Amino acid sequence: MSDEEQDQKVEETGELVINRILVALDNSTHSIAALEAAARLAATMQAELMGLFVEDVNLLRLAALPLAKEVTWPSSARRSLDEARMARELHILASQARRALAIAAEQAEAEWTFRVVRGTVAEEVLNAALEADLLSLGRASRPLTRRVRLGSTAQAAAARSGRPVFLARRGANPELPTVVTYDGSRVGARVLAAAARMAQANDSNIIVLIMADDADQAPQLAEEANRWLKDRVAHAEYRFLPIDGEESVLEVLKQERCGLVVLGGETHSLQGPRLNAMLDELDCPVMLVR
Amino acid sequence: MATPQSLSAEQLFQRTNPEQFNFDTTANLDGPVTVVGQERALDAVRFGIGIQQKGYNLYALGPHGLGKYDVISRFIEERAGEMPIPSDWCYVHNFDQSYKPRALELPAGRGVQLRDDMAQLLEELQAVLPAAFESEEYHAQRQAIEEELKERQESSFEELKNKAQERNIALVQTPSGLAFAPMREGEVINPKDFLSMPELEQKQVQGEVEGLQEELQRIMRQMPQWQKETRDRVKELKREVATFTVAPLFEELNNKYADLSEVVRYLENVQAHVIENVDNFLQKNSDEENPLAAMMRGQRATSQPPSFVEYEVNLLVDNSKSEGAPVIYIELPTYQNLIGRAEHISQMGALLTNFTLIKPGALHEANGGYLILDALKLLQQPYAWDGLKRALRTREVTIESLGQMYSLISTVSLEPEPIPLDIKVVLLGERLLYYLLSQHDPEFGELFKVMADFDDEMERNAENSLAMARLIASLVQRDELRHFDRGAVARILEYSAREVSDKERLTTHLEKITDLLREANYWAGEAGRDVVGAQDVQRSIDEQVRRASRLRERMQESILRDVVFIDTTGEATGQINGLSVISVGSYMFGRPSRITVRVQMGKGEVIDIERRVELGGPIHSKGVFILSGFLGSRYATDRPLSLSASIVFEQSYAGVEGDSASSAELYALLSALAEVPIKQSFAITGSVNQHGQVQAIGGVNEKIEGFFDICKARGLTGEQGVLIPDSNVHNLMLRDDVREAVAAGQFSVYAVSHIDEGIEILTGIAAGELQEDGSYPKGTINYRIVQRIDEMAERLRTYNTPAPQDSEDGRDQSRGAHEEE
Q: Coil, helix or strand for A290?
């Protein structure tokens, strides 16, 4: 469904339509969290789950190099790589991903498909996302440190995907409130609709961060948001953000105990490198709506 | 020798004159009396309770129903009330060895305080510790420590990553780890391109990659150490916060129990354990998960909420409400009820236990006081006797599971610290048990040094009679019965004498007296009387007899219907009525048995048919041998006893025991030898010695009444009577109807002291005294017997002497042929 069609649908029904969810799987704990979140949403919306596993062509190239060696985790032993073994290991990962998808889909009683493609991970994921209404993936593959910064694929998806993107994080509690930004922009309704959907799927409350350009606009925006939400969620709270940039948004989000953050809007703090920096810092699942 | 006269009716009974009492009814008697006639036993009890030395435990012996328990418990309770209240005992967790719970001794009443204080402490810990660890200060400090680690790791990787990037090499993740890949245009270099590079360049790249790999390895090897350092610092921070938080709570308790060093030491252990395991207090309920699910995944149920059971106090012995030392009696002295036990709870199919499941035994509860036990019940319980002895010997109670001891079950077990034991045990039991234990258990004498022997009878004098009256009054009051008038009391005393079959003694069997009182009270109620009279007591006795008389009546009936042959008139040679006693429970009755003797030529032996067929007991056989001895010594000192006599209890199919029929057997034997008939209107009881003296027997009253009942049923002739040993006269406490018949001359009781007196009464012929020439006066019984023996000896001699033959050879041949037969 194109953005225009989606907007029209949202306008007509007040609902964000999600029929197909692409889940990028690499068997990391964060990608499993992405699968779980997608399955919950699929169960609520009767959506189809589309599993994707990308055999990273860079890894295969690396394995074919005569100097290729890996330092294993966590033993720190060094061992040689070869192309055949790398292909085999990727094949095993793909099988595991397929099994995980099948189990999650069965529990969610959702239709599912699974594909394995070979290529550059970010490119393949973004290409496949064009066929879906939502892209769900882990915020990083296997992070090297305890700090879970945004991985390269997640960065690419956040920056380039035209579809809503769900960046999952392991260990999050989906029952905690869903925090959503609203700036009254063109995509605002879609953002609210997506937040309402996620709150329904997770059985959580909603906190709306009103991002107004000036103090007079804020109550008006809250009124608008309330109009959207009042029939769709049981309980919604409103917070008014000071109008001084992305740092304050990040500070507020860090202070709130949230199960999910739904971001979207035309405010400059939700665009470009500022958005990327914010995504990098946020230590909880994020849904990006455009 | 003069023939004894029959006894008068007065000699058959010792009456208690109600007029001897100066009260009308038991209502006039006051003061509680629980026992009479037990001075020896009471002195022993006083001694046993008073002496405080190891092994001076008591064994109160005597038949069941003497009131031993009442007497002893009253004595002990009086003394226990003056003794100090013993300590409380608690079991607490042993923080060094959890399977060995520690025992704590506290002054009475402080055990319950400690238990409540610990419960309160736990409650407070559960509140203050999570609050302390949720504080912003704690979070900030912890976050700082953890951030430091993240920064350290991140900067190391970043540095390495940047270093690699400078060389156009990327750090990439593989499915199993990390690798360095030379890059070209943002992607990993194509292998073909790499191989097309000059060899020198390839080597250079390879060298750089190897250098980076080594550095990566160094960083990765350092990471566990950094993580450990961080964990240690977090742990130390937690310890500091916990110590600071709990210190005031423990300080308060330490002050409260400062006088009890063991408790203070325990509190120190608790404090250290709380600080070390503070995470247990920080677990949230939301972390709970089904332990079964965890197990199915092959994991330990780590997120199971902590129970904090190790901080509880198991108050085993609580003397907070005690007054004086405890006096404990247990109805079921099993091993576990005595020693205590560690119970188990089932969890996921496994049996688990901990120190809070330790339950006290009677030894714990009676510690510092007295424990009264029924010896028979104790010995009937497996291992209970051994357990008790072990506790008394070691002077401590050690809870050990029998299942563990004998490897019957295999499960988690405890070895609770033994508790010192200071106790006096009183065993109540039958005499036989005491004698058996003394003989067969060497430890018994060491552990039960004091014997309190309760007598089952006492002298019947004015003092004891009044004491018994007072006892009756006490029992009446205790059981809230109608009062007894003095006639009723007098009748009870007579019953009491009859119970021990002695005119001069009274029974001390409290249970029998109590039963009679209750039943007499019932019959008085039935008769609509407010005060129990003698007639009510008599009714009770009659009803007791009637209830138990089914077998007696059946046996009498079989005699009266001539199924069992007993003559009560006429005369017969070699035939006599013996008397025996049958016991049915606590009821005894007498019955006559016909004894017959047949004499034939023989080698001087008396054949006891009962013994030959193994129906005669050893004492019966002894009696028969004794009468053989009498026969030989009296009649065969200068002549051979060439006869053989067989003695039998006719129509006896169940065995005969006792020697009380030996005089009757001897009379029958003498009758058979002398060929003089015996009057069948008599029945005889009494044993005999080798000199012909008649000796005392038991059950004389029942035996006389047993024969009297048969005679009365057939019609008293005035000729009928019973011969009893003279030494049994003091045992006579006969029924009214027997006494009335004797007074009316319809029945007789003769007391004989020698067999010669008896045979004269039975045959009407004098026995005959030995004259100077060694012969007996002509016509007497003894003369006839000697004549008969001589005749038989002569006949035997004649028979054994072969007829005269013509030749010596022929006589020799004949003898040879006889010997061959």
A: coil
Distance, CA of B709 to CA of B136 (rounded, Å): 105
pLDDT of residue A269: 73
Q: For residue B351, count CB atoms less than 10 angstroms from its CB and return exposed for 0-12, middle for 13-18, buried for 19 or more.
A: middle
Category of B195 on φ-ψ map: left (φ > 0), alpha (ψ -120 to 50) or beta: alpha
Q: How many structural domains are present in chain A? A: 2
B301 confidence band (pLDDT: 50, 70, 90): very low
Q: Give A184's pLDDT tier (boundaries 50, 70, 90).
A: confident
What are residue A162's phi and psi, to 5 degrees? -85, -10
Chain A CB within 8 Å of residue B422 CB: no
Q: Do A219 and A161 belong to one domain?
A: no
Would an 8 Å CB–CB cutoff place B11 in contact with chain A?
A: no
Q: What is the CATH number of the domain that holds A46?
A: 3.40.50.620
d(CA B484, CA B472): 8
Per-residue pLDDT of B563-593, as tens digits, reads 999 999 999 999 999 999 998 888 899 999 9
Task: Mark whether A56 and A27 lie in a shared domain.
Answer: yes
The tens digit of pLDDT for each residue in B533-567 reads 999 999 999 999 999 999 999 999 999 999 999 99
Contact B191 A81 (CB under 8 A): no
Top-confidence residue, B417 or B801: B417
The answer to whether B192 is a known catalytic residue is: no
Same domain, A140 and A185: no
DSSP letters, B74-130, are: HHHHHHHHHSPPPPEEEEE--SS-TTSPEEEEE-TTHHHHHHHHHHHHHHHHHHHHH
Residues B381-395 have pLDDT tens digits of: 999 999 999 999 999
d(CA B152, CA A146): 11
Q: What is the pLDDT of residues A146-168, one digit of tens each?
A: 566 788 888 888 888 888 999 99
Residues A128 and A59 placed together within one structural domain of the fold: yes
What's the average model confidence in pLDDT over B714-731? 95
A168, A197, A229 - which closes a domain: A168
Decide if B660 is catalytic.
Answer: yes
Give the range of the structural domain holding residue A239, as residue numbers without chain letter.
178-288
Disruptive mutation site among B188, B284, B287 for chain A (greatest number of A CBs within 10 Å): B188
Q: Is the ipTM of this complex over 0.95?
A: no
Given the structure tokens 């063991």, which residue do they identify? B262
Which of B167-181, B397-411, B766-780 has the least mean pLDDT? B397-411
Percent of chain B with pLDDT over 70: 94
Alpha-carbon distance of B436 to B661, in angstroms, equals 31
Q: How far apart are CA B309 and CA B118, in angstroms?
A: 11
Query: Do A76 and A15 belong together in one domain?
Result: yes
DSSP per-residue string spanning B449-513: -EEEE--SEEE-SHHHHHHHHHHHHHHHHHTTPPPBBHHHHHHHHHHHHHHTT-TTEEE--HHHH
Q: Which residue shows structure tokens 């970043």?
A: B158
Domain final residue pick, A145, A168, A191: A168
Residues A25 and A87 in one domain: yes
The residue type of B692 is G
Tell me, yes or no, whether A189 and A248 share the same domain: yes
Q: Which of A74, A76, A146 sits opposite B153 (nearest CB)?
A: A146
What pLDDT band is residue B114 in, cutting at 50, 70 and 90?
very high
Spatial contact of B68 and B430, defined as CB atoms under 8 Å apart: no
Cβ contacts of B194 on chain A, cutoff 8 Å: 65-66
Q: Is residue A173 part of a domain?
A: no
Contact at CB, B150 and A145, closer than 8 angstroms = yes
Angle, CA of B192, B198 and B200, to the nearest 5°: 125
- Cα angle, residue B474 at apex, residues B470 and B476 outer, rounded to 5°: 110
Residues A138 and A202 in one domain: no
